[in-house]
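A quick aside before the break. I want you to see a complete sequence-to-structure record at least once, exactly as it would be stored in a machine-readable document. Don't worry about memorizing anything.
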Amino acid sequence: MRDRWAKDTGNHVFAFRGYNVTNLGRSAELLNQPDYRETVSHWLVRASQIASDFLHRPVDLLERVDRRVETTLEDYADSIALIVAMELAQLDILEKFHRGAYQSARFACGFSLGEITSLVAGGVFELEEALRIPLQMSDDCIELARDMRLGVLFSRGEQLPVDNVKKLLVDINRNAQGILGISAFLSPNTYLMMGSGATLEMLRDRLTEIQPKGVHLRLNEYRWPPLHTPLVWPKQMAERVGCMLFTLKGGRTAPTVPVMSLVTGEFSYNEYNARELLMRWVDHPQKLWDVVYETLVRDVDTIVHVGPEPNIIPSTYKRLAANVDAQLKSQPRIRALSAAVQRQWIKALLPKRAALLRAPFVKHIVLEDWLLEHAPTAAR
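That is the input. The structure line, written in tokens, reads:
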């Protein structure tokens, strides 16, 4: 029997992943599953041809997946095509073999590259057009990433005062030793930061200017494309993408499944503004927390994570659920309130922020795992 979310309940959300240091996930298993192979092959070949034509070099995603060759930063363009192709392949498999319910979802969202996939899935752009947007920036992203580092700025106590963070960024950036920017708001107390040169080290030395105590900066060992930050400004990437967007034929319809944009943190897409939002997508930070909060306020009971080995969105929910669980165990009053927010008539009387207490009760499904577990051949 299929899980409840796979029926037309309309109480689930699809969340598309973006670029990561690893991007294959279980794609090879999906490709080699007899029932799914034709569908997966179709999307990998199609995306390979689009990338090859645009990049003027051979791209063979089918061979890469079949041989389980992981991508690197130097393969960033291949990563883009691979992620989008596998996200669409997973949705296609869900519909063909499991009477999937993407079109009945309450809404969709996507972190970084995932937002572009959500627009393809929602009929705003064809894949051939949508892939041109990130591929246009891929070479510059590789070049810029060589001098980029990522850090996680977080507080173990109170939420981070965003104005204090922004003031400090202005002060660090005016020293002209690099550029530092916020790439994503993961939660009120956790931001993803990207910086060139020694800017992250300068930030780490001045954390007490954000908050007297309890603020930390954890540096990541990998190099990352600096999208969603001002670090792309030296290459004028937003303007160049904007010029290209004007030539696309699509973007004249609203998504068939509402898309909550991480550019605005709202349901901003309509029948004419996709070009404007995607231009802002290039250099504006990702408002992931707004999406997380919206799912809880709207009583979503299941989040389906699309793409190979999704990470950042499920990790954000996991941290929130763990924090809520800790509060529930330590404070009986909060535990009673958490039970109350599951009852609709009581929920209407409670403060809006009480919706956060629903976090431990939201179900999370990694779509590639679910598809393999429920493969027709595997079930026989």
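Two observations worth writing down. Residues 186 and 288 are 5 Å apart (CA to CA). The chain has two domains: 7-141+236-265+286-379, 147-222. We'll return to this after the break.
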